[in-house]
Automatic annotation (TrEMBL):
NCBIfam families: PRK03343.1, PRK09533.1, tal_mycobact. Pathway: Carbohydrate degradation; pentose phosphate pathway; D-glyceraldehyde 3-phosphate and beta-D-fructose 6-phosphate from D-ribose 5-phosphate and D-xylulose 5-phosphate (non-oxidative stage): step 2/3; Carbohydrate degradation; glycolysis; D-glyceraldehyde 3-phosphate and glycerone phosphate from D-glucose: step 2/4. Transaldolase is important for the balance of metabolites in the pentose-phosphate pathway. HAMAP family: Transaldolase_2. PROSITE patterns: P_GLUCOSE_ISOMERASE_3 (PS51463), TRANSALDOLASE_1 (PS01054). SUPFAM superfamilies: Aldolase, SIS domain. It is an enzyme of class 2 (transferase). Keywords: Cytoplasm, Gluconeogenesis, Glycolysis, Isomerase, Pentose shunt, Schiff base, Transferase. It comes from Saccharibacter floricola DSM 15669. Belongs to the transaldolase family. Type 2 subfamily. Belongs to the GPI family. It is found in: Cytoplasm. This is Transaldolase.
Amino acid sequence: MANDTEKSPLNQLARCGQSIWLDFIRRDFTTNGSLKELVDHNVVRGVTSNPSIFEKAIGHGAEYEEETRALLAQKSLSAGELYEHLAVEDIQHACDVLAPVFNATNKRDGYVSFEVSPYIAHDQDATLHEARRLWRAVARDNLMIKIPATVEAVGAVRQAIAEGINVNVTLLFSIELYKDILEAYIAGLEARVAQGKAIDHVASVASFFVSRIDTKIDAEIDRRVADGDLQAGALQALRGKVAIANATCAYHYYKEVTESERWKALAAQGAQTQRLLWASTSTKDKAYRDVLYVEELIGDATVNTLPPITLEAFRDHGVAQPRLAEGAEEARHVLTQADRLGLKLDDITDTLLTEGCAAFCLSFDALLGAVAARREAVLGEKLLTVSNALPDDMAASVVAAEKEWSREDKIRRLWERDASVWTNGSESKWLGWLTAAQDGLANIDAYNRLAQDVKTHGYKDVLLLGMGGSSLGPEVLEKTFGRVDGGPTLHVLDSTDPQQIATFRDAVDLGNTLFIVSSKSGSTLEPNILLAYFWEQAKKALGREPSERFVAVTDPGSAMEQKAKDHGFSHIFYGNPEIGGRYSVLSPFGLTPAAAAGYDVRAFLENVQLMVASCDATVPAMVNPGVQLGLALGVAATSFGRDKITFVASPEIASLGAWLEQLLAESTGKRGTGLIPFDGETLGEPSVYGQDRVFVELRLGHEPVDSRLKALREVGHPVLGLHLQTPEQIGQAFFAFEFATAVAGSILGIDPFDQPDVEFSKVETRKLTEAYAETGHLPEEVPFASDGSLTFYADDKNAAALGTGDAASVLGAHFKRVGAGDYIGLLAYIERNSSHTQWEQDVRLMLRDRLHVATAAQFGPRFLHSTGQAYKGGPNSGVFLQITAEDAADLAIPHHAYTFGVVKAAQARGDFDVLASRGRRALRVHITGPLSEGLERLAKVLSDVVKGA
Ligand SMILES: O=C(CO)[C@@H](O)[C@H](O)[C@H](O)[C@H](O)COP(=O)(O)O
Ligand SMILES: O=C[C@H](O)COP(=O)(O)O
């Protein structure tokens, strides 16, 4: 620093009353002594940072890697948390280096500026909240919190000052706004005085951006000159002048105010003026001197923050002469002239503010994106990965959606439970799932107690009774993790089929079973009647009341809670009323059975937390796995007509498919739109698919699930991938898909948290069972056609379309109604056992291969709580074949007037009535006589009628 003598240009600036701050920060620059050297030689008296500066530093600097690794080894941190850790440390180091200047100048200089998130620039409360948080996090007296100068920020600046937080108000372009900011500073100080608080330690600068104004004005001048403007000469004379004139006028306003009596009263109490800080002072137009925005803006009580390159230039050949004090008249003349020539400075400063905020948001996105990528690299195989292989046009639309999400700050708004991300309905009351894993960890002792109880009693079986959201998650856990050595077997029963209930009853050791009755609402028919049935069964097996063998999972205040209390259940686990059933797997509805089965709930949830952090509010759309999946699903459906989501899974995690079906269908299938999910439809050759599919590969390990996916990708089908490294990552998959569904719901423009048609079916079923209880029979129904063991029922409209012929003619007419873009739903109200599952599978694949449409294979009443929503409320593209049969044997329900067989029949009829009322193409075939023969015949007729189709 030998050239920074008394006469050096930089030292001359100090003599003119101007402080030079450095517009740059980076860890190695601070740690290797470079910053200290500049400070020691009195070259630099402060530091400013902004999102772009941090993007270059943290986003690209290898020196941050080691610490990233160390931080992640300690705990799960999101990209935002990581960034903040690293940035706060950098800011603290710089503050410490500048502390001697701060002390020597009596708190006038020696500040380091740290900017609040640019995303919240238009939110006064959020800005203030963030200012307080960062102020506390850095905890240095010579910190300045940078707040962008939007209209909304004015109040935040005033309040922050009143609270004694130093503020650098940044992104100032307009003199009008600057006046408001200066007023906010003064009012903030006055508020402190009114409260008897000291003001001599509160500092603020107003960062006026310079070069960007010339960039815009000069471009406008050049355009008009090129267009042959008659005022070309006068216009050209203003090139490179307007920005300086604007800044000069701001300076004179500052002078005026600080000479006012009002200010003098504050100064008497030790107040520091809010100095103007010239920012954006590197020269952008190479035709100008590279020190133009330094030399022209020299004046007493100002700061100029310079990037290293401009600092070096001025040091080398800058001329330090005070210009501002003298320049008022000329500046006013330039601005008047600009106005006269139609150069609209107000419009330009407004645009610059908007563009400045947007540019900082982009930098912040790039910064957080880079941190997220580094986090992913460090966590490696601890995280599942999402990969989207999309055709070019779809990929471009997803990128556009990403930009939209970034611009509209939707990820943060989603995390803040802002219903305007969806329909502005009741969505904000249904986002408890975002923190379910964290809540579960807080409640870990209760799960451990249950696990201990199960061990102490040595239960052989755990039988969970519940439907939909209460059963599908636990089923995935059981199918994925199986039985823990020495632990019980977890069984999940979600049916009213008498045979299925009997099969479960016979599979468990009734005298040595823990029963979990799971119902959020507590009013769902199935868990209530299953409870009635198994209570009696357990009582019979034990020879006494089985109270301690029963556990309830339900929302507080539900009828089930009361029942559990009345019956003296050993445990009641309470759900979060802000989590809907299909989003409840990471809440007590999944964790209670998991604990009972002996799974390590803590490890499971900690694993989930990694994905929660990956989808965090701070992780930009382009690297946020939940957003990536959700945008691809939403965009594929809304812009490309690809609304059939086909899951293809590694066998070890295949059970995820049924859970996903509920999540997607129940969340999105409404108001005539939606994503229709298809689980378990074995892949075929590309020729059997229409243009309405999205394939989702759920892969465990490194091997692709099915080699045919490659061919499908090659012919232009979108293939999304969720790649799990270990089965434990199933928890991460739950969260990633919950998030994705919420995102897709936003794109579809629906409320992804209600399920009107599931509720409607429940009501219809209840009406029928109540009628049965009164009359002893279900309402009469008349088949419109019959053929031996196959009898056909439908509403009048469907019946009229299908004729009264034999089975082949009715079924033939029904499936003739299937067209491109449709799907087929087989809805069988029979036992869900392996042979029936295989039957459905064979029939669906045959139909798929012949008719080239997507096919769903469902069992009632299970699907009523799941895909049933989309079948009724989603697009009218489903063609349904409901299959019912005589029950070989029925089961009575203790204390009820009806049997399980009656309930199941009522459910099928209720389901059909709702399908028909929604104008769906639906047909019910009822099988009489031996079921296997009836199914065989039905399969044969179906195969014949669609042959050659
Ligand atoms: O802290 C501040 C202003 O307070 C600075 O970092 C300010 O953000 C920068 O000078 C500007 O962003 C740089 O603008 P530009 O040279 O890219 O137009
Ligand atoms: O998905 C939810 C099912 O409809 C069951 O509801 P529930 O948990 O209130 O009994």
